[in-house]
Amino acid sequence: MVAETLMPAPPARLLTPPGVYAPQWDTGLLMQALGREDIDDATEVLDLGTGSGAVAVHAARLGARVTAVDVSRLAVVTARVNALLAGRRVRVLRGDLTTAVAGRSYDLVVSNPPYVPSPVDRLPRRGAARAWDAGADGRVFVDRICAAAPTMLRPGGVLLIVHSGLCGTDETLRRLTERGLSASVAERAVVPYGPVLRSRRSWLVRQGLVDADDDREELVVVRAVRP
Questions:
Q1: CA 33, CA 187: separation in Å to the nearest integer?
Q2: pLDDT in tens, 111-141
Q3: Which residues does 50 contact at the CB level (< 8 Å), separation at least 6?
Q4: What are residue 46's DSSP bridge partners?
Q5: How far is residue 112's CA from residue 55's CA, in Å, rounded to a whole number?
Q6: Does residue 130 contact residue 136 with C-beta atoms inside 8 Å?
Q7: What is the CATH classification number for the domain harbouring 73?
Q8: Is 167 contained in some domain?
Q9: I need a surface site. Which of 49, 116, 148, 152 has the fewest CB within 10 A?
Q10: How many CA atoms does the CB half-sphere of 79 hold within 13 Å?
Q11: How many domains does the chain have?
């Protein structure tokens, strides 16, 4: 049976200007999974698609040395300000997923990437939808992270990635396993549809992704370990 999970409180005084993804259920679920990891002041964490910096700041609060990346200039500035307000040191870089940290590896990689299936397969280059649209199957960024995971992680390193069950939990597990990682679902939660899914309900029904009377989705955090 899938248990519901309440989102932990975001860091105090967290700024989320228009155009930057504000912490939601998925953020809380990822923060919860992160809190279960063995983290100390030697742990190096990479947060891909940091948005407001909520997860990066949370990792820093747990004692980790944190690098955060986002493709949005506004998100980069926002994450830097939120880290400053929280009194935590977070290195925030601008880049498209791993491009800003090419050649580096980490003990722990966390990501809350865009994962919402979209009627428009072309990815937005600006605007709020950039934080959630991920192609017709919702897997554009999830698949890229799965492909990069073996080189991003040090031996024994852990990947934590959160996404909706709508874009295929089994597919994520399969891709990570094929790349030599030990993958499993670490957290699950069933949450109400947000504004984006509500606005796309008719399209999602036509695609066979949801039933007409569905109003809740399953979120998962997939945990993968490099041997």
A1: 7
A2: 999 999 999 878 888 878 888 989 889 999 9
A3: 56, 68, 69, 70, 75, 79, 92
A4: 67, 109
A5: 9
A6: no
A7: 3.40.50.150
A8: yes
A9: 148
A10: 34
A11: 1
